[in-house]
Amino acid sequence: MCGIVAYVGDRTAYPILIKGLQRLEYRGYDSAGVALINDGLHVYKCKGKVKDLEEHAKGKSITGNIGMGHTRWATHGIPSDTNSHPHISMNGKFVVVHNGIIENYAHLKKGLISRGYTFQSETDTEVLANLIESIYVEQKVSAEIAVRSALTKVIGAYGLVISCSDEKDKLIAARKGSPLVIGVGENEYFLASDATPIVEYTDKVVYMDDEEVAVITKDSFTLTNIQNDTKEANIQNVTLSIDEIDKGHYEHFMLKEIYEQPLSIEDTFRGRVTMDHSKIFLGGLTEALPQLLSTKRIIIIACGTSWHAGMVGEYLFEEYARIPVEVEYASEFRYRNPVIQEGDVIIAISQSGETADTLAAIKMAKERGATIVGICNVAGSSIPRETHAGVYTHAGPEIGVASTKAFTSQVTVLSMMAFLLGKMKGSLAPDNYIHLIKELGKIPDKIKKVLESDEYIKKIAETYKDASNALYLGRGNLFPVALEGALKLKEISYIHAEGYPAAEMKHGPIALIDENMPVFVIATKDKSYDKIVSNIQEVKARNGKVIAIVTEGDQTIKKMADHVIEVPDCHEAVAPLLTVIPLQFISYHIAVMRGCNVDQPRNLAKSVTVE
Ligand code: M6R
Which CATH code for domain 252-441? Predict the structure, then answer.
């Protein structure tokens, strides 16, 4: 949940760390800090964002060619200067940055206190720093051995970078459950929670595996497991460009990412759909195709926006491939005792590939014999490495905490999978299969048309920016779009919003409707159209304000709604991809007008690597 960056080489570490932290700020942004190792050790840290850290470090010594940085999302201890990372051990021998949670920290702390250790902060990380130091001092071993020994005593998750004041030329890194990437340069190395702080300097990376320890100097690095067996470093080329991780001319990453959707969907298609749009090929599924074709049930597990994409997937798999689907919150699934039958296929969806609950649910289902298929955006992240087969979404880095282009890419992959399985199982006629691929292929251009409504939608947002509540209604595969619209509004503008299947409104939420209640209705032309028109009338009869997302040219709803936002006509199977765009814009503009921090909403982080 936090972001880590570290450097060892000939360059000055500080600017590399600061830039890296800015790129990682999406992972947590309640405090930030750096440790610079030169003749001595300088630690600068404070509550707030990376820009506050820069202010704090102004005028101080920022030299040194080795260092580590951290941007925090608080777990143990409130956001404060003292709880910020890096943490120094009591006698100043070790400095540590940590992403994850040491679950048995209270027990370890008790033991350390009884041996005379005192603590400055409330964090689990300081406990680890002192544990390492106590082993180092008491057992008179090397820093590396002290770290290994401490890690055998720790229960929990960690991505760690550690430096010892007696071995100043070296960084020690370890990973279990929290991601860590090593960037391999010429006489220099980088460490980071993901590749974004690294790509500016090198395209060669090693994604560390769980329970691996790396010891890094400017000239070399070794990779071992906790027991000190040598591991082979798999150096890979990362294909991330700087343009992809910069805001460009956009005011916020979220806005940039909304506008990127025609391209990110194209990229999701690329190489997977033939030029004439007559065939889908998903190479990553090969291993799991026999199971997918014979399974009696698919269980989709995910969290947040990815869960909403999963609900669209449920509709698609049931409608076109005739496979029964259950969609589960990963956090609920993993803590129940779910019935997993022989032949069950689990589809795990995650933008980051690091969501702790999704990862744990995968591991549990795998142990019980299910075939796991991943749909992830971040290559090399933890989830794809746990799955039997999978499809990357290729949406490019998503930096805004509110997920936008990841959702549409996930839905694109799910659509391709459902159409392909339907065709292979014979439940989707060849003509319909080709027709659906073509409809999907037209989506990027149709989204471009919706993007032209940005200014018009902004005016609608102005009308509702002071609302305290909002309702979102949709039917069929547009119900998950209603949920997604409500989530977007909640998370970035802090307006309470709920999504409902439109027909459910009568069973309770209708009591909320009065002249102050904006009701966003997704009402494009499909088989439920007449029903949703009736739902709009029910809202209007109670003086609710209706903002309807409609098919271009719809005159019926225009006459009854307060505002209509048109989207191009499309097949109902692909309508979620178009209708979600106006809802993303609405939330974005309302949040900006309310002065909210769009890319880094309060209390949130981009990847939730804690349970
Ligand atoms: O990286 P993941 O897709 O696994 O993340 C799941 C959720 O944490 C994520 O979708 C979250 O709900 C977003 N902030 C929604 O915009």
Answer: 3.40.50.10490
